[in-house]
Amino acid sequence: MKKALFLLIFPVLTVSILAEDFKFPNRNLYIEGTAEIAAHQAFFMGNFKMEASALGFTVVEDKEEAAYTFRFADQSYDDDWDPSIKFIILISLILNEGERELLSFGWPYAELDDMYEYNQYVFFRAVVLIPGISEDDFTGLVMEDNTWRDKWLYFRASFDYPIVFNVLKGDGLYDGVAVYSGDIRNPAWVNILDHKINALPGLTAGVEVQFLSFVSLEVNFQLGLGDTTKTRFTELNMSAGAQLKFPFKLFGNFMIEPYGAFVYPIAKSSEFKKFPMFLLGGGVQVCVKGGKSGAFFVDVNYIFPLPVGNLGEVITYNPFAAEPVLGVVKPDEIHYNRFSIGIGVGYKFGLLNRK
What we know:
By secondary structure, the protein is mainly beta. It has helices at 38-54, 119-127, and strands spanning 28-35, 58-59, 68-76, 87-95, 100-109, 151-168, 178-183, 186-192, 196-199, 202-212, 215-225, 236-245, 248-251, 254-267, 272-274, 279-289, 294-305, 313-317, 329-330, 333-353.
């Protein structure tokens, strides 16, 4: 971001002034600031007060009670070298006695969320020059590394456990719930069917591109073990999918990504006579920092066929049609409405920092 080009540090005018010369202790600090956008002013005021308290300062409401003022001014900015930069925050440290400016510098940034990583450092750069306060007061101060959630590219792998619901429809069934032989008005034989609810494990591998700090797109391949209409492992279900995600980077070690999902079935069980051409849905990924370049996550989702007309139903063959001793078992097809609730756990590894 070429921050060095904007670092305008003026000579420290009073570094030799002793702390006991002041009316108030150096640990009393007054913070004031302005911003073109009200949300930015509230963000920086709250964060700088938090950083001051964490580092042992007493933030006072009356300027007259403090020896120093920490002042900021946030404004829009155009950078010819880096068009992504939109704002700059100007920082000043003021000696209240005589209103003398001890230090001033600017820090450019692209989005407000970017400053979560740098607020502590910006504050430290200013107040460390207060007489009587040295680098030793900040031993152990480490800038939090949040680059794990700001990568251009992620590779994802997860273990999934979808619960698939096939809800029986009454189309052609005796009394809406049973297959039969003979006349539907007076059947010679009936067998009552039920809804099918199955949970079978699967795997997902994918690639995610975070093209904006708050939007990313993932494409993936999903493999399900066994068919999802009865519990067996003789066949595989395969699908291609896409997820449009909206990362919320609210805390340093956490990220929440709600998303919309699209699924295109590639291979399905031979039990299905008809299966939806594609499925829609959504979910959320809760990510926890897992090293400098990746994250562990839990994924919860809800997937369903497009609920228009009969597009959302699946059709299977009548499982009793091949039983000659029963005669002709009707109907030929069994209709279900289908949806799934899934949970998965996995890890994604990132490459190429966005900043």
